Amino acid sequence: MLRFSVVIGMLVACGSNVLADLEVVCPSEKQTLLLRGLAEVSRGVRTVTGSVDATGHGPITYYTVPFRKGIFSLSWKASDEKCLVFVFDSKPNGKATHALKVYVNGAPGKGKDERDVLALVTYDGSVHADKKATIVKHDHYSACNQWHEMSVTFGGDKAIVSIDEKSYAVSSERFLEPIEKCGVGHFSGSLQTRDVKIQRHDEL
Question: Are 152 and 7 in contact, with CB atoms under 8 Å apart?
Fold first, then answer.
């Protein structure tokens, strides 16, 4: 995974002191939920296959490990260059809602056909009756059939997304709420993941 010095840098950038009491959680089977597609695990590598269904959604694996301050990290390898999405949901007022989406090799909507882009999507001011999203794009490309390292660090109203030691910052008031679950999704072919873990502070 990312070098320890890089992780420390991300924590400092987030204005967080979470190093003191980090708890490392490797999600259990009960904490892991697959929506759509098929999954199998061999020698520590989870492989999910599937394609987009009638609703326009592809396979996604959710890890339910709540945390307020901490780091979600994993390594992943996709069989093609199409868009991947990493989803982080909070639960303000008792209702599950998106706090952050990270699109790799694509963007929301028609942007899924873009390739040299990483899109960070936040949802300040969004409600069920009036959905709003702020999309910030960065030049980025992750090659298919190669392993990539990724982490997302949350602290206060800031998050740092790091892929292969390149980092991108984003802020949102929704990050002040605990993250309830983290999702890893794709739209075609197969997606392999390994070393999935959440490093969380013990204060929720």
Answer: no
Question: Is the pLDDT score of 11 beyond 60?
Answer: no
The DSSP secondary structure of 18-47, one letter per residue, reads TTTTEEEE---STTEEEESSEEEEETTEEE
Measure the CA–CA gap between 118 and 105, rounded to whole angstroms: 6
With bands split at pLDDT 50, 70 and 90, how would you rate the model's confidence at 18? very low
* Residues belonging to the chain: 204
Q: What is the pLDDT of residues 149-194, one digit of tens each?
A: 999 999 999 999 999 989 999 999 999 999 999 999 998 889 999 9
Residue type, 132: K
For 22, 115, 135, 180, the CA distances from 31, given in Å and listed in that order, are 19, 32, 29, 11
Structure tokens at 67: 């945390």
**CA-closest candidate to residue 24, choices 6, 1, 5, 44:** 1
Q: What is the DSSP letter of 178?
A: P
Q: CB under 8 Å to 189, separation ≥6 — which residues?
A: 49, 78, 79, 80, 82
* pTM across the whole model: 0.84
The total domain count for the chain is: 1
Per the structure, the complete domain to which residue 177 belongs is given by 4-201
Q: What is the pLDDT of residue 7?
A: 47
Instruction: Give the CATH number of the domain where residue 175 resides.
Output: 2.60.120.200
199 - beta bridge partners? 24, 71
